[in-house]
Specification:
By secondary structure, this protein is mainly alpha-helical. It is 82% helix and 0% strand. The chain is built from nine helices and no strands. The radius of gyration is 24 Å and the shape is elongated.
């Protein structure tokens, strides 16, 4: 019986090269994690210390909120209309179409309104922040601000993060109301339910925890969008290619974190229901 070992022998230089690649990947990961934590800590240190850039914060709130108003309105209305239209056949099978307003309100206020608003803002606002700060880094405008004695971190980063943190909850609330209005249009056309009856059925199943959870989600999502976009843009490099990477990284990373935060907050709030 042939007992010859046929296991391939990996040369020692190949093994060393593999271990070096793994070591480098781990080092880069922990270095990035350290840089992100330092960036967030620096924000909390500088955001609430004078001087305060109120004018710039208001301008950024305008850029984040008002300029997203049309897109948010259209998306919110379509979400409420389509969700109601798709839910009707399932409820009609059990003769429970009267529960439709309650179902719409629970789904929209608990999950859809904050999540849809955050995803739209991540794509529009997050990419804009990443590209804007990335281009300023590439063209050395940030370095020029440091040389002139201005604190670019406070003026560029803190104002944008505060603006998204303040604006996203307002947009999410507005999205919820517009989505409920879209749901009413479908209910009114199919059943002729009056607006007063519909609104009463919409807000009846909602509790204080639902509104609190939606508000907390919106604040966390807004902070995430702002801090990710600023971090990607503020630390971009490699010329004009880095601007595109910063914008793309801001969107992808923010959306991924938003889903993780959504799962976490839903799990935590379920303990209090």
């Amino acid at each position: 019986m042939d007992t010859t070992d046929t296991t391939p022998i990996i040369p020692e230089p190949v093994k060393q090269k593999r271990f070096a690649g793994i070591r480098k990947s781990l080092t880069d990961f922990f270095a990035s994690l350290y840089n992100i934590n330092s960036f967030i800590i620096r924000f909390f240190k500088e955001a609430f210390l004078p001087p305060y850039e109120f004018k710039e914060i208001i301008r950024q709130c305008y850029e984040t909120g008002v300029r997203s108003f049309t897109l948010i309105s259209l998306t919110g209305f379509i979400v409420g209309l389509i969700f109601t239209k798709q839910s009707r056949p399932s409820l009609a099978e059990f003769g429970a179409t009267s529960w439709l307003p309650s179902l719409v309100s629970i789904a929209i206020m608990r999950a859809l309104a904050p999540l849809v608003t955050a995803l739209i803002a991540a794509g529009k606002v997050g990419s804009s922040i990443g590209a804007e700060l990335g281009s300023m880094r590439v063209t050395e405008q940030i370095d020029a601000m440091e040389v002139s004695g201005t604190n670019p971190f406070k003026f560029l980063v803190c104002t944008r993060v505060l603006a998204t943190t303040l604006t996203i909850p307002i947009l999410a609330t507005y999205t919820g109301l517009i989505s409920i209005l879209g749901g009413f249009l479908n209910v009114y056309v199919n059943e002729g339910t009056s607006y007063r009856t519909y609104i009463g059925q919409v807000f009846d199943p909602l509790s204080f925890i639902d509104f609190t959870a939606a508000l907390i989600k919106s604040i966390v999502f807004g902070f995430t969008i702002g801090i990710v976009g600023c971090y990607q843009g503020y630390n971009s490099s490699s010329g004009t290619e880095g601007v595109g990477k910063a914008a793309n990284g801001a969107v992808v990373t923010a959306m991924f974190l938003i889903f993780i935060e959504e799962i976490t907050i839903v799990q935590i709030t379920s303990w209090f229901r």
